[in-house]
Amino acid sequence: MVETRQMKQKKKKKSEKEAEASPNAAGTDKKKQLQQLDNFIEGVLQEAGEEFLEEFKQVEGQ
Amino acid sequence: MSIPKVIGIEQEYAISVKGADDLSAFHASCMLVNAYARKIGLREPGVSVLWDYGHETPFKDIRGELFGRKTGRDVTGKEDNLLINAILPNGARLYTDHAHPEYSTPECLSAREAAACDKSGELILNQAVGLVKKILPKTVIKLFKNNIDHQGQSYGCHENYLLDAKAHQQCLVSDPARAARTLIPFLVTRQIFAGSGKPGPNFEISQRAGFMERLFGLDTMFNRPLINTRQEHHADSNRFRRLHLILGDANMSDFATMLKVGTTQIVLQMMEDDFIAMDFTLRDELRVLKQISARYDCEIEMADGRKTNAIELQRRFLELAGNFCLGRDVACVPHADFILENWEAVLGGLENLKLSSDSDLEDDPRDLRRKLDWVQKLWLFTRYRRKKNLGWNHPQLKVMDLQYHNIDPDESIFYSLRDQGLTESVLEEAEVLAFVEEAPPSTRAWFRSRCMQKFAREIYLVNWEVVGFDHGDVHRMVPLLNPLKGTKERFEEVFDKACDSRRLLSLLEKMSS
Hints:
The complex is a heterodimer. By secondary structure, chain A is mainly α. Chain A contains 4 helices and no strands. Chain B folds into 3 domains: 7-346, Creatine Kinase, Chain A, domain 2, CATH 3.30.590; 354-419, no CATH class; 443-512, no CATH class. In chain B, 41% of the residues lie in helices and 17% in strands. Chain B is built from 18 helices and 18 strands. Chain B has an 8-stranded mixed β-sheet. Chain B has a 4-stranded mixed β-sheet with strand order 3-16-17-18. In chain B, strands 2-7 form a two-stranded antiparallel sheet.
């Protein structure tokens, strides 16, 4: 899970000026966000694999 | 005449426990409840607030039937009561229900408050997990706000709505065909924006749809009904009734929660006012529920043979709602404009959504994935399926599905999406934080909350409809039989003047004389 936390990036707020001045930068940012998400999910799947699924059995609720 | 739709949400959380201490789910859940209770001072010497089960009648049915030999629960001893329950100073109830930590929000007047209180439950439980970690560092507890374990078990996100007693009697008891014409078709189809989605064996938009087995019923763990008929109104039942719905999905998206609850508020008011003249009765409602879950835009059949689909049916309700809100005091449904506007926007988005025959998301031109849980998941799963060539039943998709609902912001896929700016919230962080400590101001929850904040040492029992004070030789009960009374506006000054509960009761008596 340490690996996952290191990969997690805080959401960066972009100023309107930056966004207007650089549409390519917006596209690059989006790509970066998706890459970070993918890395996060890979981390999740490594940490909680199929055995997690088997162990997840719950008591029947309401 | 319709009455304001006070709302409460009860969320059963899934719990995973791993570690050296061999803790069961039940005991882990109780530890969470008590760790948080201890943190906020509810387990200090002299403080012993019990949950009053006396008003719970799980075997009494609004249709007049009695199931089993008893009408109420077995009496719970004091130790077990405190093991299982904590009544919080924000007016909520945190407790262990069938081994699940359950957070029942305080009573809310608006859909926005309900969504915020539901989210504050996550914050409270995250705190509880951190507190237990300090006591048992080798045990890892994780909580998930969802409805299925992918192994056949389900647990609920229940909604409670205040109804006028006469309308409840007419629409749900004497003539349930009225509910079948109006409320039930709405509930069956609202999953197109309220569903949380799940993978395997195919993708479905709802987690709970497959577990619903009847239209009306008393049970909640099997034979699950769309309309729960438990006669347990937690209010003056001559004036008020509680509509208890167990078919809804748990939403991580606060937008989805707000829309789910807000649209239901409006439809219920329309039903109460007999505003819906059309007959929307579906042919085989339970079958339709499952059909829509399998494919949100499928053709469905109405009882008179007409064919339609869920989006079109929801559009009819939206149109009625728009006309209803124009002609009435919309204060009864707070944020009505927001609800109507977004209901329209979401339906428009759904009409433009494109899925492949295999349910992959091909196009989402209105970015519904930023707002609706099932569309967000579909987007995620589609990316992953295509990248790794996975079938819908692949275990990795189920792990992703569960981890979407993990409430730990450092581990949750949902919160990772939010951190990357890939999903939207309608709530401000400050309002969610506020409801960790405070109750909504415009229902009886505020009164209960203030009692717990100021006089916990003098309270011996509480439930939704009563606060009981221990005054030595006597117990003094303050009934809260009207969920719309006990507000901050009415009673703040009284509480400010009261140094103890005896003074409070004296001031209340003066007010009423």
